[in-house]
TrEMBL record:
It comes from the Bacteria. PANTHER family: ACETYLTRANSFERASE C18B11.09C-RELATED, SIALIC ACID SYNTHASE-RELATED. Pfam families: Hexapep. GO terms for cellular component: cytosol. PROSITE patterns: HEXAPEP_TRANSFERASES. Keywords: Acyltransferase, Repeat, Transferase. The lineage of its organism: Bacteria, Bacillati, Actinomycetota, Actinomycetes, Kitasatosporales. Belongs to the transferase hexapeptide repeat family. GO terms for molecular function: O-acyltransferase activity. Transmembrane segments: none annotated. InterPro entries: Hexapep (IPR001451), Hexapep_transf_CS (IPR018357), Hexapeptide_acetyltransf (IPR051159), Trimer_LpxA-like_sf (IPR011004). This is Acyltransferase.
Length: 254
């Protein structure tokens, strides 16, 4: 026999759910970090319109972290400079993040020595960038107790770093590079390349002489023409595929 619905309890539950969601949204807005509202964090520099989402990940060594403008740092992103908190790392920045950088949720950028991320780089969630790796030279000493190796990391501007990618110490990634999801990158990656695998290898590259090799399998997306309104885009999205294809074949007047 079905249970009688308790309308009052259901109403209270919905109201409580809305209150919880509204309260958490307020906490997220209030807890986010910006140049105007840095909270307890004192970054070496943080540009206008940059925001670190709440809840934050681990953040320390912030006086040696310099962030550009219009950056988006997702929830639970770890940003560290130095091996541990409260070290004096000298006069120069250790972690440099350019303008317009997006760091996806749960990513880690561990800068025990210099890490540079160029402008307009986009990271998917759970990317791991580190300038430090464990050493295992002494076979008799636990690996975690051996002094680590450190090498600077540089990621050029305009890169796309896929979900779960790992950027290892000494990596030098060029301009406008695509790093596939789950790739493990070490060494030098040239400009305008696509790398994939563990360890990552170049699987496609663009040069002025030959274009993309191997050739791209899909056509380049067509940008939205200037002057198109949001209402027109909504109307277009509601058309069936056959009508859209017929309109695309029409010759422009004139």
């Amino acid at each position: 026999m079905p249970k009688r619905k308790n309308t009052f309890s259901s109403w209270r539950g919905r109201l409580l759910q809305r209150a919880v969601h509204a309260g958490w949204a307020w906490v997220q807005r209030t807890g986010s970090v910006t140049a105007e509202r840095p909270g307890r964090l004192r970054f070496g520099s943080i540009g206008p319109a940059t925001r670190l989402a709440f809840p934050l990940g681990t953040v320390f060594g912030e006086p040696w972290i310099h962030m550009g403008s219009h950056c988006i740092v997702g929830e639970q992103v770890t940003l560290t400079a130095g091996l541990m908190p409260d070290l004096d790392l000298g006069p120069d920045p250790i972690l440099r993040i350019g303008d317009g950088v997006v760091l996806g949720r749960g990513s880690h950028v561990i800068a025990d020595t210099t890490v540079t991320i160029g402008s307009d780089c986009y990271f998917g969630p759970y990317v791991y960038v580190t300038s430090t790796n464990h050493s295992y030279d002494d076979p008799h000493e636990p690996i975690g107790k051996q002094w680590p190796r450190m090498e600077p990391v540089r990621i050029g501007p305009g890169c796309w770093i896929g979900t779960g990618a790992v950027i290892l110490p000494g990596a030098r990634i060029g301009r406008n590079v695509v790093v596939a999801a789950g790739a493990v990158v070490r060494g030098t990656v040239p400009d305008h390349a696509v790398v994939a695998g563990a360890p990552a290898k170049v699987v496609r590259r663009w040069t002025p002489a030959e274009g993309w090799q191997p050739p791209l399998r899909t056509p380049a997306p067509v940008p939205i023409p200037d002057g198109v309104t949001s209402d027109q885009l909504v109307a277009l999205s509601e058309l069936d595929e056959e009508t859209v294809e017929r309109l695309a074949r029409l010759e422009p007047e004139g």
